[in-house]
């Protein structure tokens, strides 16, 4: 997902009996569906884990601006340009909400940004894939935002208050993102031969990377078990992936497009689709920095940050001058 | 009458189209997240204004074209925007200086157009003026903040105003199209906006501790379409490429 491969304490989940009174009260509150707020006591592992998860999610929103930003100046109509720009602007806003949520845990946005720029912190693997045709704007909205929604809707109930509230705001906008993507896909799939070909090609390239967004199977993972006990992860990766495939396969059929998986089939008994796993070796390569666009994405973020330094410094210097002038006048 | 009116509406629409496009080039790479969001707001407003002005232009022309046809299927010589707005972004400082120099004129222009004898023009102007009031507020603040910031930001802002000043004068020049608009009470005399503009610029540059360039030489040829800069053609190759490569497609 937007936060992939987050490691928790790795200790396994403690039972209530094994906990000190503070921790037990904390866990009982979560079990009862209560929210943890910034000033409340929390285990160090919970705090660290959340910082990593929310930070990675925020970075994904920010880096996620780039593949779609790639097409704003080439959007084919004024309306499409406005919709795409508004969508990418929303993603920047999502980044902002999430950095604010992370800051309630005692890190600063600048700290997190530095870790992104140095490559220490990750962002979702999906944004390391290139957007090559206008149909990719459709595929990204439809599949990538679609996959993000799968994960983010349950996170509205996550145990950490500021994170849950950020998710509520974000989810409102995500469904518009997915709809505009699907709308582009409809136009392309039902358009000229060339447009249809672009739509199919976009689906071919984005299908498996979208499945990878959920991360490898974590049914056996101690990290996931802990995160789920803390309710900062609400479903297993496989559950969400299945839900995504079940939702998306009929949509592809409606578009008249073919999902690039010969084994994809509806199981009449279970009502779920069976489908092929993505190439997990490719996934780990992308995480290691060897995706098609990792270098470009980090370069672009670093360039923006470096070239913006004088602006940030200038505005801070001005604000300070204003403050001291005001103090001198008083 | 319909030809000069069409020209005039293209001037308004093309300014918004070309500047909106330039500003949208910043998407995802601004100096801070808040600026990214604010720049996108400005670009979105300008794209919306483009749809209104060029939509009305197409209607007035009456040849079955629409705003998209005008935006994506005209070549450089048919564009009627000011040379100022087609200037490349440069650094963030130059982008914001360009914005300020344009916004100051744009707001005064729209306020005058709110009294237009043409109701459709007055209505578009009224809606746009609300948006542009905010653009001007923001671009003035940024010019002041960066001019009166660090030594480096001051130097960059001075170089931005020096670089862009030769494109300011064109906003106040008039030709036959303007005469025709004035005669029908549709639009103001461009020269009538100069005094207010000079006061605004003097105030903001003073607060920014920047010097107003002394030489008022003005490049011209954008709003008449006689001679654009080399930059516009490159912008159009990108902006219009998809429409022109697949002319039989709808999007
Ligand atoms: Fe988002
Ligand atoms: Fe997203
Ligand atoms: Fe989104």
From TrEMBL, chain A:
This is Ring-1,2-phenylacetyl-CoA epoxidase subunit PaaA. One of its GO terms (molecular function) is phenylacetyl-CoA 1,2-epoxidase activity. It comes from the Bacteria. One of its GO terms (biological process) is phenylacetate catabolic process. GO terms for cellular component: cytosol. NCBIfam families: PA_CoA_Oxy1 (TIGR02156). PANTHER family: 1,2-PHENYLACETYL-COA EPOXIDASE, SUBUNIT A, PHENYLACETIC ACID DEGRADATION PROTEIN PAA.
Automatic annotation (TrEMBL), chain B:
InterPro entries: Aromatic_CoA_ox/epox, Ferritin-like, Ferritin-like_SF, PaaA_PaaC, PaaC. It holds the Pfam family PaaA_PaaC. GO terms for biological process: phenylacetate catabolic process. GO terms for cellular component: cytosol. It comes from the Bacteria. This is Ring-1,2-phenylacetyl-CoA epoxidase subunit PaaC.
């Amino acid at each position: 997902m937007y936060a992939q491969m987050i490691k928790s304490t790795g200790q396994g989940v403690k039972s209530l009996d094994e906990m000190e009174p503070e921790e037990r009260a904390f866990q009982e509150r979560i079990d009862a569906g209560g929210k943890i707020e910034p000033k409340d006591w929390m285990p160090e592992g919970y705090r660290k884990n959340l910082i990593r998860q929310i930070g990675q999610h925020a970075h994904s929103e920010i880096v996620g601006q780039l593949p779609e930003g790639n097409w704003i100046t080439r959007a084919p109509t004024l309306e499409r340009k406005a919709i795409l720009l508004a969508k990418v602007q929303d993603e920047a806003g999502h980044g902002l909400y999430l950095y604010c949520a992370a800051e309630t845990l005692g890190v600063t946005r600048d700290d997190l940004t530095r870790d992104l720029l140095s490559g220490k912190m990750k962002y979702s693997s999906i944004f390391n894939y290139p957007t090559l045709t206008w149909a990719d704007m459709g595929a990204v909205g439809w599949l990538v935002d679609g996959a993000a929604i799968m994960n983010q809707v349950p996170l509205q109930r996550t145990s950490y208050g500021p994170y849950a509230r950020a998710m509520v705001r974000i989810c409102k906008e995500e469904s518009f993102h997915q709809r505009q993507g699907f709308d582009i896909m409809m136009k392309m799939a039902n358009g000229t031969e060339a447009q249809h070909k672009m739509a199919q090609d976009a689906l071919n390239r984005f299908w498996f990377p979208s499945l990878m967004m959920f991360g490898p199977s974590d049914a056996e993972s101690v990290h996931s078990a802990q995160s789920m006990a803390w309710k900062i992860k609400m479903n297993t990766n496989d559950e969400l992936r299945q839900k995504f495939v079940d939702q998306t396969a009929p949509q592809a059929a409606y578009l008249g497009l073919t999902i690039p998986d010969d084994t994809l089939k509806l199981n009449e008994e279970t009502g779920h689709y069976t489908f092929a796993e993505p190439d997990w070796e490719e996934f780990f390569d992308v995480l290691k920095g060897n995706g098609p666009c990792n270098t470009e994405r980090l370069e672009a973020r670093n360039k923006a940050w470096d070239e913006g330094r004088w602006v940030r410094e200038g505005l801070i210097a001005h604000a300070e001058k204003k403050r001291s002038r005001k103090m001198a006048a008083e | 009458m319909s030809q000069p009116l069409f020209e005039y509406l293209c001037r308004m629409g093309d300014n918004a189209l070309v500047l909106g496009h330039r500003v949208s080039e910043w998407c995802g790479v601004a100096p801070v997240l808040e600026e990214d969001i604010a720049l996108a707001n400005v670009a979105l407003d300008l794209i919306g204004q483009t749809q209104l002005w060029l939509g009305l232009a197409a209607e007035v022309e009456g040849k079955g074209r629409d705003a998209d046809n005008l935006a994506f299927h005209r070549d450089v010589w048919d564009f009627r925007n000011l040379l100022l707005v087609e200037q490349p972004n440069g650094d963030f400082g130059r982008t914001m200086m360009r914005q300020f120099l344009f916004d100051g004129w744009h707001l005064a222009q729209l306020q005058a157009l709110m009294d237009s004898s043409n109701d459709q023009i007055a209505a578009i102007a009224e809606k746009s003026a609300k948006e542009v009031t905010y653009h001007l507020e923001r671009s003035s603040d940024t010019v002041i903040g960066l001019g009166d910031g660090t030594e480096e930001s001051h130097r960059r802002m001075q170089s931005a105003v020096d670089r862009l000043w030769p494109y300011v004068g064109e906003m106040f020049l008039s030709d036959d199209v303007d005469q025709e608009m004035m005669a029908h009470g549709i639009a103001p005399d461009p020269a009538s906006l100069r005094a207010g503009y000079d006061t605004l610029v003097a105030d903001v540059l003073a607060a920014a501790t920047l010097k107003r360039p002394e030489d008022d030489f003005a490049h011209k040829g954008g709003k008449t379409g006689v001679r654009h800069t080399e930059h516009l053609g490159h912008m159009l190759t990108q902006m219009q490429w998809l429409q022109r490569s697949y002319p039989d497609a709808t999007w």
